[in-house]
Amino acid sequence: MTNSKEYKRVTVKSLVEMKSNKEKIAMLTAYDYTMAKIVDGAGVDVILVGDSASNVMAGHETTLPITLDQMIYHASSVVRGIDRALVVVDLPFGTYQSDSKEALRSAIRIMKESGGHAVKLEGGKEIKDSIKKILNAGIPVMGHLGLTPQSIYKFGTYTVRAKDEEEAEKLISDAKLLERLGCFAVVLEKIPAQLAEKVAKSLSIPVIGIGAGNGVDGQVLVLHDMVGMTNEFNPRFLRRYMNLFESMTLSIGQYVSDVKASDFPSKEEQY
Ligand code: KIV
User: Fold this and answer.
1) Which protein residue's CA is at the shortest distance from atom 4 of ligand 1?
2) Ligand 1 within 6 A of 146 CB?
3) Would you call 189 a catalytic residue per the annotation?
4) Where do the domains of the chain lie, and which CATH numbers do they carry?
5) At what angle do helices 165-181 and 128-136 cross, to 10 degrees?
6) What CA–CA distance (Å, rounded) separates 193 from 196?
7) What is the DSSP letter of 86?
8) Torsion angle in degrees (nearest 10) through CA of 66, 183, 21, 220
9) What is the number of the ligand 1 atom nearest to the C-alpha of 208?
């Protein structure tokens, strides 16, 4: 089954049902109203207001600088554009790691001020108390393991994670912990496909992969990468469905020529 519109509104419960019905989950990022409307209308099940907005929208090198206020701005714009998708919002770096009360305050701000439906946090055992506190307040939590970009300065590079046994074991035990705590889904980023499949098979909650192979319950990509709006980021896992960078550059170049040549606007395009 693809792009099932069976669910008028996707909820955290529908995602778990999709997994048990073996229907794959399609997730994409969006950061603004116009894009969210397109992504939602095309049948994407989950829209992630990712902290990748820090890179894609603001041009930062990492996801670390984006603030809670900025995430709320992006998320509230996305929420206004959707009818069907579940909107998950990243808690940005520094808003949930230091203590669980701060984590809860951050998650509450996201839910109250943006209208998003769930939050996503990076990490396992280390942030267990924060996850528990947020879940206890009735806020759905999506986990994120493997390559966790908020820890880039600890990793040093964006290469594939959990290739060695020790890290793979920790990832498996973190994924099981996230399920036990009550997370409704987990993202696995840039890890070996075999390991991701093993995790997906051992959990009853959906596992959504990015660079984690095809043996998981769904896929997520950054919208601007999959439509080819960005052209500098070329990981192996990325499938570009369009080359918007090229078509936009050509169209804008044509507009510039038309204006310079006094060809735009024409008689039909004026009052
Ligand atoms: O911020 C983001 O876009 C993400 C995805 C890469 C999963 O976390």
Assistant:
1) 50
2) no
3) yes
4) 12-240 (3.20.20.60), 242-271 (no CATH)
5) 20
6) 5
7) E
8) 20
9) 7
Here the contacts of 191-200 (C-beta below 8 Å, separation 24 or greater) are 191/145, 191/146, 191/147, 191/160, 191/161, 191/162, 192/160, 192/162, 192/163, 192/168, 195/162, 195/168, 195/171, 196/146, 198/172, 199/171, 199/172, 199/175
Question: What mean pLDDT comes out for the span 125-143?
Answer: 98
* Whole-number Å distance between alpha carbons of 79 and 88: 10
- Catalytic-role residue among 102, 189, 197, 232: 189
Condensed to tens digits (0 to 9), the pLDDT of residues 20-68 reads 999 999 999 999 999 999 999 999 999 999 999 999 999 999 999 999 9
Cβ(29) to ligand 1 under 6 A?
yes
266 CA to centre of ligand 1 in angstroms? 44
Q: What is the spatial distance between Cα 206 and Cα 200, in angstroms, rounded to a whole number?
A: 7
